[in-house]
Amino acid sequence: MPEKARKLIRFFNQPFQYIHRRWLVVVISSAWVFLVAIVLRPLGISLSDHEHAIVFIFTVVTIIVVSFVMYGLPFIFKNFYHPDNWTVGKYLTIPLSIVIIIAPICAFLVYFLSVKENKVMDVHPFYRLFVWYARASFVAAVPTFLFFLVGRNQRNDIVLSDKKNEIINNNEDDKDIISLSGSTKDSLTIPADNILYAEVLRNYVSIYYKEENIVKQKSLRTTLQQITEVLEPYPQFVRCHRAFIVNLTNIADVRGNSHGYQLTLNNIDVKVPVSKSYTKAIKEKLDI
Predict the structure, then answer these.
(1) Which of 18, 38, 52, 215 could anchor a disulfide with 83, C-beta 3.0 to 4.6 Å?
(2) Which of these, 225, 220, 216, lies nearest to 195 by C-alpha position?
(3) What residue numbers bound the domain in which 147 lies?
(4) How far apart are CA 288 and CA 282, in angstroms?
(5) What is the number of helices (H) and of strands (E) in the chain?
(6) Is-contact 279 261, C-beta < 8 A?
(7) Strands 187-191 and 177-181, how do they pair?
(8) Can you give the pLDDT at residue 55?
(9) Is the Cβ–Cβ distance between 42 and 87 less than 8 Å?
(10) C-alpha distances in Å from residue 208, one per residue of 66, 205, 218, 220
């Protein structure tokens, strides 16, 4: 099997966040169809003497079809739509099912009204159906992409939260006090879990940590490699950039793509960069 095909299969089999607010899909999809019908006036609407009636009918049909796909199909095919087994591929069957059902209905409605108004278009039925499938796919692309982004972000947040809890549970009995020092007399002795992140600034490493819920900073004349070696026994600390070490248990959000990520931390208004060379390691640690 070609490598691209294997990547595509892996993508479709990726776990995905199940859409529990199914009513929201119905509302947003119907509103989007209504807007498109009003603004773009797809094939057949502009030729009718009852444009507003057709727009209303399209909206009602959308509500019925989307409701059936979101509520009826999960009721009929309970195993397939089970939230615990939800994947990207299964999510994409939702817009696919909607397009397959709604396109011929809309094509028939427009043809029926054109016959009633004696405005039959000289177009082959199969071509007309093909056009409606193409238009329905185009219209469905926007809400599909929107819900995909929302679902992916929700999934990442859940995985991130679970991973943080796992790290915390693995270290809940490990309250070791660590001491960080450099080539000068300055040093920092604190519980490991209190460290938020470390950043290289010229010949110093700035340690950001919390103490009594207040974020503080301490600069030590040392290297990030030396700090890494001290923190090596603690799996929650990961090198994410040539100039940064971050505490995974303090990550609040992850944003980015394969070219690089940014980590938002709790307790401090800062975004820690993840360089491309460390992206794979961070993704494995956070299981995203």
Answers:
(1) 18
(2) 216
(3) 3-168
(4) 8
(5) 8, 10
(6) yes
(7) antiparallel
(8) 82
(9) no
(10) 50, 10, 7, 11
pTM over 0.85: no
Residue 170 has pLDDT above 60, yes or no: no
Task: Name the residue with higher pLDDT: 177 or 274.
Answer: 274
Q: Which helix (H) or strand (E) holds 11?
A: helix 3-12
Please check whether residues 100 and 238 belong to one and the same domain: no
E strands, the chain, where?
A: 177-181, 187-191, 195-201, 204-211, 214-220, 237-241, 244-247, 251-257, 260-265, 271-274
- Do 218 and 239 fall into the same domain? yes
The predicted-structure confidence for 184-218, as pLDDT tens digits, reads as follows: 888 888 888 889 999 998 889 999 998 888 899 99
Q: Structure tokens of 15?
A: 């776990």
Contacts (Cβ under 8 Å, ≥6 apart) of 285: 163, 238, 248
Do the beta carbons of residue 45 and residue 55 sit within 8 Å?
yes
Q: Are 97 and 192 found together in one domain? A: no
Rg (the chain; Cα; Å): 27
The encoded tokens of residue 278 equal 């460390």
Domains held by the chain: number: 2
**Tokens of residue 187, six digits:** 């040093």
- CATH number of the domain within which 231 lies: 2.40.50.1020
What does the DSSP 8-state code read for residue 192?
A: G
Give the full edge-to-edge strand order of the sheet including 251-257. Answer: 251-257, 260-265, 271-274
The residue assigned the tokens 């938002």 is 264
Alpha helices in 117-246 (DSSP H): 125-170, 224-231
**Which helix (DSSP H) or strand (DSSP E) does residue 6 occupy?**
helix 3-12
